[in-house]
Amino acid sequence: MPTAEPPYRQIANDLTAKIRSGELKPGDKLPSTRELAEAYKVHMNTASRALSLLHDRELITGQPGRGTYVAERSPR
């Protein structure tokens, strides 16, 4: 019996799809953790965990005091 994906993975996968489709482009600023939590109706810790996953996937980069941005694509 399949289990539902955890909310943080759903958020990370949604943002990943937007980045890969070009809806979110390199250099675009992502919403704050608070804004993501409100948009997805989850706790801020869940939104933060989703952003951590995107950072681990090297899709986003954080700039202390400025925000989180879509990372430049590395040539493949």
The CATH level-2 architecture is identified as Orthogonal Bundle
User: Which ranges are low-confidence, i.e. pLDDT below 50, for 5 or more consecutive residues?
Assistant: none
Oligomerization: single chain
Q: What share of residues are in beta strands? A: 5-15%
Estimate the helix proportion, in percent. Answer: 40-55%
Following the backbone from N to C, one meets helices and strands in this order, namely HHHEE
Structural class: mainly alpha
Please, what is the average pLDDT? Answer: 93
Write down the Rg. 12 Å
Overall geometric form: globular
- Termini Cα gap: 37 Å
Number of strands: 2
CATH superfamily: Winged helix-like DNA-binding domain superfamily/Winged helix DNA-binding domain
InterPro entries: Tscrpt_reg_HTH_GntR, WH-like_DNA-bd_sf, WH_DNA-bd_sf
Protein name: Regulatory protein, gntR family
Keywords: DNA-binding, Transcription, Transcription regulation
Pfam family, one: GntR
Structure, explained:
GO terms for molecular function: DNA binding; DNA-binding transcription factor activity. Keywords: DNA-binding, Transcription, Transcription regulation. This is Regulatory protein, gntR family. This protein is mainly alpha-helical. The protein has a single domain, classed as Winged helix-like DNA-binding domain superfamily/Winged helix DNA-binding domain (Arc Repressor Mutant, subunit A), CATH 1.10.10.10. 47% of the residues lie in helices and 11% in strands. The chain contains 3 helices and 2 strands, in the order αααββ. It has a two-stranded antiparallel ribbon with strand order 1-2. The longest helix has 15 residues. The chain is globular, with a radius of gyration of 12 Å. It starts with 6 loop residues before the first helix and ends in a 6-residue tail after the last strand. The model has no long low-confidence stretch (mean pLDDT 93).
